[in-house]
Amino acid sequence: MSGQCAAKADLMLTDSSKSDASADHAAAIVVRNLRVNYGNREVLHDLSFDIKAAETITILGGSGSGKTTLLRSLIGLEKPVSGEIWIRGHDLCCISAAELAGLRKKFGVSFQGGALFGSMTVGENVALPLREHSRLDDASIEVVTRIKLEEVGLSGYEDFYPAQLSGGMKKRAAVARALTMDPQILFFDEPSAGLDPIIAAGIDDLILKLKRAFQMTIVVVTHELVSAFRIADRMILIDKGSILAIGTPDELKANQHPRVRQFLDRVPDPENSANEDYLERLTARLRL
Ligand SMILES: Nc1ncnc2c1ncn2[C@@H]1O[C@H](COP(=O)(O)OP(=O)(O)OP(=O)(O)O)[C@@H](O)[C@H]1O
Ligand SMILES: [Mg+2]
């Protein structure tokens, strides 16, 4: 880190702990005035928020609102046009590629869609980060892999291929892989999307268990409301690339902003309603 960035880091840590005198832990992630573009189109508009250490944050919002883009920005995969992202005192915009790679070893990430390697067994998938980033010998890697699979309830599935697992088991295996390096911060993008409600609740339980057992900072992107309310200490609601609301589950439930209510009460957008009206008129005409 350059001298200027190091000084900025000290400043931000002091500021964030000052601004949150009630919490006994410093901010794990600080985001200030973040703007992210794809080409000429700005998709994240001037976002600012803090995530405290050992806190579980859910990032909520409709499809296309910018949740995945925000998560990708937090782990350094998207470069902001302007603004600052501080992870444990490191400014992502200032650090070198080598420093970013070092910092990433402290993250566990489970992307939207899970993305296990189909040609590798579950055990090989989970062991992959250790093979790439550690100097552990084969026997130690095998032990860590077993422990991680046990943590997610997949003991005994080391030799199965992803295609032989159910959707929920695949998600669990992806979580096990995210846990392999004993991360300080876990990022999940839609961990329970496409799963039936019982399996989805199982993934929520797993996240709650990780939170209690390891005091990790956990960032979960989701549009599943039930799940978001179950696991969150605080929630960030994003609408069309801007923060609409931020607060505890109770604060969000009490928020009377019409757009927040529309999202939390699942009221369809007028443009979608217009499409539904059009379909209704069309099918009515066909029925005549
Ligand atoms: N690689 C990309 N190139 C160009 N535009 C993109 C790219 N990825 C996302 N976008 C656009 O950025 C906006 C935000 O997309 P993003 O994937 O962050 O939304 P999301 O909230 O995660 O949606 P979902 O709930 O459907 O996963 C959308 O308008 C999308 O079309
Ligand atoms: Mg997404």
Description of the structure:
The protein is α/β, with parallel strands linked by helices and 288 residues long. It has 11 helices and 10 strands. The chain has a 6-stranded mixed β-sheet, with helices on both faces. Strands 2-1-4-5 form a 4-stranded antiparallel β-sheet, sandwiched between helices. Helix 4 runs parallel beside helix 6 (167-179) and helix 5 packs across helix 6. It is globular and about 55 Å long. The model is unreliable at 1-25 (pLDDT under 50). Adenosine-5'-triphosphate is lined by residues 38, 43, 61, 63-69, 112, 223.
Low-pLDDT segments, ≥5 res: 1-25
Helix content: 40-55%
User: Kindly state the mean pLDDT as a whole number?
Assistant: 84
Strand numbers in spatial order across the main sheet: 6-7-8-3-9-10
Alpha carbon gyration radius: 21 Å
What would the principal axes of the Cα set say about the shape?
globular
Structural class: alpha/beta
Number of helical segments? 11
Order of helices and strands: HEEEHEEHEHHHEHEHEEHHH
* Strands, total number: 10
Query: How many strands, which pairing sense, and closed or not: the largest β-sheet?
Result: 6 strands, mixed
Molecules bound to protein:
adenosine-5'-triphosphate, magnesium ion
Amount of beta strand? 15-25%
Distance between the termini: 71 Å
